Amino acid sequence: MKLTKKLTPRKLIAIPVVALIAAAALALPASAATDERYITVNAEGVVQVTPDAVRLSANVTYMASTSAEALSKTSAAAAKVRAALIAKKIATKDIKTTRISVYPEYNYTQDKGSVQIGYRANQSFEVVIRNATSAGAVVDDVVAAAGDNVQIQGATPFVLDSAKATASARAAAVANARAKAKSYAELLDVKLGKVTYLVENSSPISYEPLMGVAKSSDAIATEIDLGNQDVTVSITIRWSLI
């Protein structure tokens, strides 16, 4: 009598599953079996521009025997500064009070130590001068209005609207990145494909503040030296290789 081996249900199921896995493996494209190839580069675009505005920092201060008097006289001097700014066509939206303070002031001597001599009040302003060429004249008028009770703490040239310069810097950054990537592709004997990744790494405008107020040669009019500032865009960009 001839015996036949009976297949178990588990083996009957396992055979087609193995066959399906093998078929799927054969159907995979050849590119899936290899790692994606690409070149990633960092590049910068820099455009130099002449500032078109100046940020003026000024402080009005007054000392008196009482805090109320010190604050009142400081407010009066601040009003003169404000009037001088408005007379120079500075818009009220560009005049900002950044700090008001009143505090006792002391004088120190070896004999008596610290002795209170009165109260000092301060009011600080930050002013945006949108016409950079008039900044020197604005400084002169502010000082003339408040006299020795005003301190000019700084005049900082800056780019009021950097959108156009930023667009130019961005275009330069892309051009520099493309040139760098092509150079690598030639060295490696490969060709660039499509861009697959791009990120802008830095803020659009980057510059070191230029501060200072300088007298012109005739020692009468004040001049603000604007200089040049860099608008910088930094990017990271990736090309696939073909």
Describe this protein's structure.
The chain is an alpha+beta fold and 242 residues long. It folds into two domains: 35-50 and 162-208 and 226-241, Protein of unknown function (DUF541), domain 1 (Translation Initiation Factor IF3), CATH 3.30.110; 53-158, Protein of unknown function (DUF541), domain 2 (Alpha-Beta Plaits). Helices cover 32% and strands 38% of the residues. It is built from four helices and nine strands. The strands form three sheets. The chain has a four-stranded antiparallel sheet with strand order 3-4-2-5, with helices on one face. Strands 1-9-6 form a three-stranded antiparallel sheet, with helices on one face. Strand 3 (95-109) and strand 4 form a beta hairpin. Helix 2 runs antiparallel to helix 3. The two termini are 67 Å apart.
Provide keyphrases for this structure.
242 residues; alpha+beta; Translation Initiation Factor IF3; Alpha-Beta Plaits; 2 domains; 4-stranded antiparallel beta sheet; 3-stranded antiparallel beta sheet; 4 helices; elongated
Question: Helix amount, in percent?
Answer: 25-40%
Order of helices and strands: HEEHEEHEHEEEE
Class based on secondary structure composition and strand pairing: alpha+beta
- Give the low-pLDDT segments: 1-5, 7-34, 206-217
Widest sheet: strand ordering: 3-4-2-5
Domains (count) = 2
- Give the CA-CA distance, first to last residue: 67 Å
- For this structure, what is the CATH class of the largest domain? Alpha Beta
Number of strands: 9
Compute the gyration radius: what is it? 35 Å
Report the biggest beta sheet as strand number plus sense, adding barrel if it closes.
4 strands, antiparallel
Strand content: 35-45%
Oligomer: single chain
CATH architecture of the largest domain: 2-Layer Sandwich
User: What would the average pLDDT be, to the nearest integer?
Assistant: 84
The CATH topology of the largest domain is given as: Alpha-Beta Plaits
Per CATH, the superfamily of the largest domain is Protein of unknown function (DUF541), domain 2
Tell the overall outline: elongated
